Amino acid sequence: MTLLAVERIKLFSTRSPWWCMLLALGLTVGITGIIAANWQDSPMPVIGTVFTYTFGLYVIMVMAALAVTTEYRFGTIRSTFQAVPDRVSALVAKAVVVTLLAGLVGEAVGFGSWGLSNLLAKDTSQLALNSANDWRHVAGIGLVYAAGAILAVGVGTLVRQTAGAVSIILVFALVLESVVGLIPKIGDDIQKWMPFTVANKFIYGSPDPGSLPEGAGPPAIGELSPWGSLGYFVGIALAVFVISLVVAKRRDA
Amino acid sequence: MLEATGLTKHYGKTVAVDDLSFTVAPGRVTGFLGPNGAGKSTTMRMILGLDRPTAGRVLIDGKPYTSLARPLTKVGALLDAKWVHPNRSARAHLRWLAKSNGISYRRVDEVLDVVGLTSVAGKRAGGFSLGMSQRLGIAGALLGDPEVLLFDEPVNGLDPEGILWIRQFLHRLADQGRTVFVSSHLLSEMAQTAQDLIVIGRGRLISQTSTEQFIQDATEDTVKVRSPELDRLRALLGDDARVDDVEGSIVVHGLEPARIGELAASNGITLHELSPQRGSLEEAFMQLTKESVEYHGAE
Fold first, then answer.
1. With contacts defined as CB-CB under 8 Å, which chain A residues touch B89?
2. Which option is the CATH number for B2-217: 3.40.630.30, 3.40.50.300, 1.10.3470.10, 1.20.1250.20?
3. Could you write out the DSSP letters of every residue in chain B?
4. How large is the ipTM?
């Protein structure tokens, strides 16, 4: 518990986490507001309120990576390991704090977007959260953000540089996962196992029948069920994080 | 009590620290002296468990650093004053350190007061001058009221007032019975700060001795002589003495002033000057680095 308090003090005594959280909320809820205000012709479905969740995911992952890389950038990681020689505990505490925060931001993004849509959409008849699927579309965002944060802390710990860690995360999520689908023959098969693609399936996959026209909305591809997809994404995040712990424990600080 | 045995660190093919063994006693300021790149900082990092030794170990009162339960209450260290997040306030920086080792926030205010930073405690550390950063680093080292204190080049880049403050401060800490281990590449600084010296060159131990003894051993006494009959005198000095010519005078190595005076008197040579010269600390230090280079080159 002490270590959690330490990491909480560290995180909130600098400004960048606040900016990242505000940006994550503003981007997602704000753009959802524009979508909701312009939703024409049909009642807005629940899934339509969370199309923007990925923008916030990237920002939150940057925040999580920064929580580690700034420590390396400014040398405070050495003070950290000096105060807490058990490096694994120190890094796990950091990951827990960042993950909880990411989860909270994710819930705020989900329910904020959904709530604003209720205010701005012309036809809100389909916006009530009536089914498990509806809840998953909205509340699931917190889970994806939390898992994304674990992944980003792992990448940050491995790479130790802000520019490197942020590039890896963004290039992977925004470029590589799309480009890989262009590889002839095997591209599609690889793409449906890429982590962010699979995470999308958890949020967008299996909407209630009739809520969206066939083929509309963001793609939800992958072999696993929505919850299986989340498990896969969390598994990858934990694997990267555990590898980063082993590496951090062995190398010189 | 700090005890290093066979401490060795390789970075790839480079040997940074080579089979280094020494002890640092409580109640004294012990200087850790060596030219830049001699392995001082690497040794300090290994003491704190930040770098993993390739071989050997360091024990603090019989225990390795990484097995200390609340390490900041046992060992305080200032390795680099810039190891602070620039957007975090001095107080917040000390608070997270305090929290991690179960130290009260009251102690944070105490150490801020000790180093004279109370008035700027809420300001972001990135705006601090080097002297202020150094004070913040010292506050961090003192936080846990530790018995052992390590400082890596604490006076680097400080103004004379800051240097004096740190010097007196280190003495106060040692007088309280603490183990104070402070590194520097300046012998002249160490001569005024440290009672004991551990001298390293190229990662190897050159000597561990009292500062006084070290300077005595390393510096050489010479005699400066001026005379209108220098050539005659030079011939009388014999083969044992080495003589250097320096601007109309000679500097004699290896002979007492009394002996030279007697030689001159018994041969009727007029002397205009006969003055003993004490070797300078800089010369001693040059000698030391030269030795460490030669030591290495002979291998």
1. 13
2. 3.40.50.300
3. -EEEEEEEEEETTEEEEEEEEEEE-TTSEEEEE--TTSSHHHHHHHHTTSS--SEEEEEETTB-GGG-SSGGGTEEEES-TT-S-TTSBHHHHHHHHHHHTT--HHHHHHHHHHTT-GGGTTSBGGG--HHHHHHHHHHHHHTT--SEEEEESTTTT--HHHHHHHHHHHHHHHHTT-EEEEEES-HHHHHHH-SEEEEEETTEEEEEEEHHHHHHHHS--EEEEE-TTHHHHHHHT-SSSEEEEETTEEEEESS-HHHHHHHHHHTT---SEEEEEPPPHHHHHHHHHHHHHHHHHT-
4. 0.86
